[in-house]
Amino acid sequence: MKNIQAQAKLLMEFLPYIRKFKGETIVIKYGGHAMTNEALQKAFALNIALLQYVGINVVVVHGGGPQIGKMLEQLNINSTFRQGLRVTDDATMNVVEMVLVGRVNKEIVNALNQSGVKAVGLSGKDGQMIKARKMEMVIHNPAHQAPEIIDLGKVGEVMFIDTKLIHALLRDSYVPVIAPVGGDEEGETYNINADAVAGAVAGALKAKRLLLLTDVAGIMDKDKKLLNSLDISSVLSLFEDGTLQGGMIPKVKCALEALQDGVEKVIITDGRVENGILLELFTDHGVGTELVRKKA
Ligand SMILES: Nc1ncnc2c1ncn2[C@@H]1O[C@H](COP(=O)(O)OP(=O)(O)OP(=O)(O)O)[C@@H](O)[C@H]1O
Ligand SMILES: [Mg+2]
């Protein structure tokens, strides 16, 4: 009896959180690095099921860097990265689309379906959901006078998110699972960083939370110590002093944009921690890094 009472008490502790998030939208970016373990993928799917059962609208955006890398290696296609983004020629773009839309997306949809929710896999081309354009990257290197223009090939950036299809799916209790591939007016296909898509989707939906699941505990400072909570001004200095490198650069950029678009809080956390999503949403102290517009 004592045991059951303790269990009931524990369940009641979740009531304030369920109340806070019921009817709200949460966008979860599932990083390619965080989804390589099957047991973790199952736990991820069950966490999403729980969120849906308590009335939260969940949208998943996924990456797939390691999976793309593996396939490119098998096909002997070399890749280089600039500022955390993969330089994407036409042959690479074909592989990116095949792996992301054809395989990774369907694997996540399948895992979610198995956990009891109905998931629908989409690429940004479906319903013209993601309007993209070629990314123009300009780097200002103090060592050179002229800015350096980098051609990233078929790397795109989000121009606009049409949320109609997402809303239609959420209304009928489907979990949209979005692969970060988009098209432009001319029918070109672009490889878009998944964090950028997640940030833009969260902003367009005015999501309550954007959760970025990755393969590190969160944002680390120069001494590799986890930073628990940051606001926009403190994040900007991390860019300037070079604390943020590689894949963390587009991640934090998109987080800032999402906050500016009205997302209340962005959380960067370790996708390798079992039940990490629940820890971040249903407890007061998450385990990763939270980003807010301005600290209270
Ligand atoms: N200051 C920092 N704090 C934490 N991680 C950092 C920092 N600077 C750079 N990183 C790197 O950023 C990486 C996370 O970005 P990465 O793009 O590799 O993964 P992802 O976005 O989760 O997956 P995917 O790109 O496949 O969707 C970390 O593994 C870490 O090596
Ligand atoms: Mg990344």
Care to describe what's here?
The chain has 296 residues and is α/β, with parallel strands linked by helices. The protein has one domain: Carbamate kinase (3-Layer(aba) Sandwich). 40% of the residues lie in helices and 24% in strands. It is built from ten helices and 16 strands. The chain has an eight-stranded mixed beta sheet with strand order 5-10-2-1-13-15-16-14, with helices on both faces. The protein has a two-stranded antiparallel ribbon with strand order 3-4. A two-stranded antiparallel ribbon has the order 6-9. Helix 4 packs across helix 5. It is globular. The structure holds adenosine-5'-triphosphate (ATP) and magnesium ion. The site of magnesium ion has 4 residues, from loops. It comes from Desulfovibrio litoralis DSM 11393. It is an enzyme of class 2 (transferase).
How many DSSP E strands? Answer: 16
**CATH structural class:** Alpha Beta
Tally of structural domains: 1
Main beta sheet, described? Answer: 8 strands, mixed
Distance between the termini: 43 Å
The side-by-side strand order for the widest beta sheet comes to 5-10-2-1-13-15-16-14
Question: Can you tell me the CATH superfamily?
Answer: Acetylglutamate kinase-like
Structural class: alpha/beta
Regions with little confidence, pLDDT below 50 for 5+ residues = none
Run of helices and strands: HHEHEHEEHEEEEEHEEEHEEHHEHE
Shape: globular
The small-molecule ligands in this entry are: adenosine-5'-triphosphate, magnesium ion
- Let me know the average pLDDT: 94
